[in-house]
Amino acid sequence: MKKFFIIICLLIFTFIVGCKKNSESDDVEKFSNLTLKFAYYNEGKLLEFDTIIYENEAGNKYLVNEIQYFISDVILHKSNGENILIDEWKDIHYIDTDILSTQTWKIPDKLTPGNYNSISFTFGISEAKNHSLMFLNPPERDMFWPEYLGGGYHYMKLNGKWLSDENTINPFDFHLGIGQIYHSYPDSITGFIQNYFEVNLPSSSFELIENQTKEIEISMNIENWFRNPNIYDHDVYGGDIMQNQEAMNLACENGHNVFTIKIIN
Q1: What span, in angstroms and rounded, lies between the C-alpha atoms of 197 and 239?
Q2: Considering only CA atoms, which of 216, 255, 211 is closest in space to residue 232?
C-alpha cells in the first residue's frame, strides 16, 4: 500500500510539473527582428560621390559630396490593420554617408511575426519632437537648425556642386528644415512652416518570421529630389535654400517619391 501511495504521488507530481512546463512554454511570446539598411542611387545605379556625372531635369550637371538626414516615427502596417510604431528605444534615426555605422539600424523593438503590408516614416522630425539642444553630441548635434530660422534640427543636408549657366562650378547646400514666413526678406520673420512629411514606401509588404531577422534596404533615389512633380533648377534657386521656403517646398513635394525599398532577405 505504501509503495502504491508513493507511485501515485510521483505520477501526480510529474503531471503537475509537465503542465507547468507546457503552460510556461505556451506563455512564451514569439518575436522577430528587423534591420533597416540605407543606400543611395541615381537613375537606378549606386550613387557615385564627388564627380560631375549627373544631370537633372533642368539641365544642371551636378555632383553629390555628402548626405546627412533624419527619419523618425517608423511605422510597420500589419495586414490585420494594426500599426506598430518603432519607439521602444529610439524613434529618431540619423543617417550619414560619411559614417558607415549610421547606415544600418538594428531595430531593438520586439516585433511580432506575421505579414506586414507596408512601412511608413516621417522624413525629418515632427514639430512635436524637433526641439533645440535635443542632441548634445556629434554628429546629430551638428545638424542644428539656426534658432532664428525656427530652431530644432535639419531634416537633411544634401551637399554638392553644380555647373552653372555661366560655366562655373558652384557649391549647393540642398538643406531642408523649418521654413520661414517673411514680412521683408531676409529680416522680419513673422512665422514658421513645418516642412517634415510622411513617406509611404511603395511595394513594401514583407513577412516577419519567428526568431529570424528581416533585412530591408531603404534607398534614396537622388534624381527624384529634382524632378517630380517639380523640376528643380539650381540656377534659379542658388546654392543655399535654408531661407527660401519656395525652394524647400518644391523639394519636399518631390521628396514623397524619393525613397524606395528592397527586401534583402
Answers
A1: 23
A2: 255
* Phi then psi dihedrals of residue 210, to 5 deg: -55, 130
How far is CA 81 from its chain centroid? 22
Classify residue 184 by burial, with Cβ atoms within 10 Å: 0-12, 13-18, 19+.
exposed
**Distance (Å) of CA 220 to CA 103, 174, 226, 257, 260:** 12, 15, 13, 9, 7
Rounded to whole angstroms, the Cα distance separating 231 from 57 reads 6
Coil vs helix vs strand at 19: helix
Q: Measuring CA to CA, which residue among 69, 47, 50, 65 is closest to residue 223?
A: 47
Distance CA 258, CA 73 (A): 18
The Cα 87–Cα 148 span in angstroms is 30
Question: Taking residues 17-25, what's their average pLDDT?
Answer: 45
- 102 φ/ψ angles, rounded to the nearest 5 degrees: -75, -15
Residue type at 55 in one-letter notation: E
d(CA 244, CA 234): 13
Give tens-digit pLDDT for 139-188. 999 999 999 999 999 999 999 999 999 999 999 999 999 999 998 777 78
* 178, HSE (Cβ side, Cα atoms, 13 Å): 24
Q: Looking at residue 1, what is its pLDDT? A: 46
- For residue 139, whether the previous peptide bond is cis, meaning omega lies within 30 degrees of 0, is yes
CA 164 to chain centre: 31
Which amino acid type is present at position 102? T
For the question of whether the overall pTM of this predicted structure is more than 0.70, the answer is yes
